[in-house]
Design brief:
- 2 copies of one chain form a homodimer.
- Chain A contains 8 helices and 8 strands, in the order H-H-H-E-E-H-H-H-E-E-H-E-E-E-H-E.
- The first copy, chain A, is an alpha+beta fold.
- Chain A folds into 2 domains: 142 residues, Winged helix-like DNA-binding domain superfamily/Winged helix DNA-binding domain (Arc Repressor Mutant, subunit A, Orthogonal Bundle); 75 residues, Ferrous iron transport protein A (FeoA) (SH3 type barrels), CATH 2.30.30.
- In chain A, the strands form 2 sheets. Chain A has a 6-stranded antiparallel β-sheet. A two-stranded antiparallel sheet of chain A has the order 1-2.
- In chain A, a hairpin with a 3-residue loop joins strand 6 and strand 7.
- The site of one manganese (II) ion has 4 residues of chain A, from loops.
- Chain A binds a DNA duplex through helix 3.
DNA sequence: AAATAAATTTAGACAAACCTAAAAAAAATT
DNA sequence: AATTTTTTTTAGGTTTGTCTAAATTTATTT
């Protein structure tokens, strides 16, 4: 009755989920890049996941998780984000240190453990990077947010999440004193390099690169 | 510099450690029984652990962990027991439910994670089963304790640990209201079946079987 | 419509971790 | 001391998950 998947299978499932969240579907090459493995390895696993009815896949085509596969993905995402929240809130880790550890903890799958942890943490709805945490039924809040590059001039908004967990990004944000919840207004956009000047928390003015702006999600306030 | 071991290697190392703690050394058959695998598989792994300098082993002989192997074992035991403590104290699990989960969590090996968890828990010195938790240097309290079967009549003592993590044992102890710290005096020993009558917490009288007495460790008070 | 480039799959290997059955060594009995 | 039993190892397989190199399919250009 109770299904059990290997670490490897779970990492594939989760990454397919993230890919199809951002582009609607997943492809062999993109998944290989995400998992830092090779396309041939991906094809092997796609066959296994299809055989287990977790994946909708035909050779040479793009692929998507089946409803069952998506249910499993949401469980993994739930565990990952709950542990990240735990590490930051209870163990006092920085938000740039928790992703790798959660990458391991997410594979300890025991329903009671996850649900008790959730309760212990007081049912947090967002992880330290601003991403929503699925509840025990896989439901989560969908934020309407936009990429900072698309935000209109002088529109009051705040950072709602970041589009990458890389410690390089998080280090840069720490340096610039930008975190989830920081108030942002775009004061000027420079067409030369598409960098922009921001006002942070209605006070400081900073300049950020296009690369940075393109991984910052904001919502209007 | 930083070594990394597979789940399987870690389970072998930890179980060799426990065997040599109780009998001074480990053997192929005993380890196979402990790991619920087959002797041939054990031999395979012994060669690998020897090649990695974690094990002192010659074919057909008993074996022991090298100092390095023991250091690693203590790290695994530390994580296992800290997580058990966390599960009972923070997530409100029963002491009979935590062993299996800790069996997984112990493999998430990140020094900062373990040390921060230790601090968060306030540096507990014993796990829920009364076993000592190694500190970050691998040091732990050695309790002088004896098996209940060897305790003299009317000697005031208390339960200090249990010699098995089986949920069957823990269920029985829960039923008899015996837990770590319970005061115990042996009032009578029956030679017919070597069962014994106990006084618990200076109040209740209960009868326990030899099998049960032989997995209860006590220390005098 | 051909030719070229890119994406994907297949073929064939390999390492890790397990297994069964058979052989060898060590220990216990007679 | 010889025989029997027990313990351990070896030989030879299997599964999972990975890889490289070659082949195939699909997409893009010319
Ligand atoms: Mn992971
Ligand atoms: Mn996150
Ligand atoms: Mn384990
Ligand atoms: Mn324990």
């Amino acid at each position: 009755m109770s299904s059990n998947f290997s670490h490897s299978e779970e990492n594939y499932i989760k990454n397919i989920y993230h890919l199809q969240q951002s582009t609607g579907f997943a492809t062999t090459n993109e998944l290989a890049a995400a998992l830092r493995s090779k396309p041939a390895s991906i094809t092997d696993m796609l066959k296994k996941l299809k055989a287990k009815k977790l994946l909708i896949y035909e050779p040479y085509k793009e692929f998507n998780l089946s409803p069952q596969g998506k249910r499993i993905a949401l469980g993994i995402v739930r565990r990952h984000r709950l542990w990240e929240y735990f590490l930051v809130e209870k163990l006092k880790f920085g938000w740039d240190e928790v992703h790798e550890i959660a990458e391991e903890l997410e594979h300890v799958s025991n329903k009671k453990l996850t649900d008790q942890l959730d309760q212990f943490l007081n049912y947090p709805r967002f992880d330290p990077h601003g991403d929503p945490i699925p509840d025990s039924n896989g439901k989560m809040i969908v934020q309407q947010q936009m990429i900072l590059t698309e935000l209109a001039l002088n529109a009051p908004s705040q950072v709602s999440s970041v589009g990458s967990q890389s410690s390089e990004l998080l280090e840069l944000l720490k340096h610039k004193n930008i975190t989830i919840g920081t108030r942002v207004e775009v004061k000027k956009k420079f067409s030369f390099d598409r960098s922009m000047e921001l006002k942070l928390n209605n006070q400081v003015a900073v300049n950020i690169s296009e690369q940075l702006a393109s991984v910052l999600f904001v919502k209007s306030v």
